[in-house]
């Protein structure tokens, strides 16, 4: 696993709105608010993404999910715990940065995926 680049590592990580939002602030002054639902449905866990790109599924029905825990994993990731019991995805600094920068496009793609499968938030 590659070492995270310093601009990928937030200088502040905090939960807000009773776990509904994860706030990340970067040294360059950038700040992002990632909704718990967004983080949960885009979990990097093998359960949702599959192994080696195979066997994954679309996560649905998480509109009211909350983050209940944020734990560092080494110096490369966070383990987020959600109130639905999910806690297996490791959100690397690189992945959190990607989610932050591409939030709108990733959310729209997720909504299209839901609609195509007849699933709901």
From TrEMBL:
Organism: Rhodoblastus sphagnicola
InterPro entries associated with the record: GBBH-like_N, GBBH-like_N_sf
Upper lineage: Bacteria, Pseudomonadati, Pseudomonadota, Alphaproteobacteria, Hyphomicrobiales
Alphabetized Gene3D superfamilies for the sequence: 3.30.2020.30
Residue stretches making up the Gamma-butyrobetaine hydroxylase-like N-terminal domain: 14-97
Keyword Plastid: no
Protein name as it appears in the record: Gamma-butyrobetaine hydroxylase-like N-terminal domain-containing protein
GO-annotated molecular function: metal ion binding
Keyword annotations: Iron, Metal-binding
Pfam families on file: GBBH-like_N
